[in-house]
Amino acid sequence: MKFKVNNKEVFASTGGRPFDKKNPLIVFIHGSGLSHITWVLQTRYFAFHGYSVLAIDLPGHGYSEGPAIESIEEQGKWIADVIHSVDMKEASLVGHSQGCLVALECASQFPDKIKSIGLMGGAGAIPMNPELLDLAEKGDPKAVDLMMDWAHGPAGHFGGHPVPGLHHMNLGGSIVINGSVKNALGVDFRACDNYKNGFEAAKKIKCPTINILGDRDRMCPIKEGKKLADNIEDSEVEIIQNCGHMILLEEAGKSLELLKKFIRKNHPAEST
Amino acid sequence: MDPKTYKFDTLSLHAGYMPSKNAGSRQVPIYQTTSYMFDDVDHAAALFNLERGGHIYSRISNPTVQVLEERVAALEGGTAALATASGMSAIFLTIMTLCNAGDHVVVSSQLYGGTVNLFRLTLPKFGIKATFVKPRDTEGFKKAIQENTKCIYGELVGNPGNELMNLPEISKMAHDAGIPVVIDSTYQTPYLFKPLEHGADFVVHSLTKWMAGHGSSMAGILVEGGKFDFLKTDKFPTMTEPYEGYHGLSFAEEFGPVAFTMKARAEGMRDMGPCLSPQNAWNVLQGIETLSVRMEKHCSNALKMVEYLSNHESVAWVSHASLKDNPDYDLAKKLLPKGTGSMIAFGIKGGKEAGAAFIDNVKLASHLANVGDTRTLVIHPASATHSQMDEATLKLANMSHDMIRLSVGIEDIEDIINDFEDGFRAAKKPKLVANK
Question: What ipTM was assigned to the predicted interfaces of this complex?
Answer without folding.
Answer: 0.95
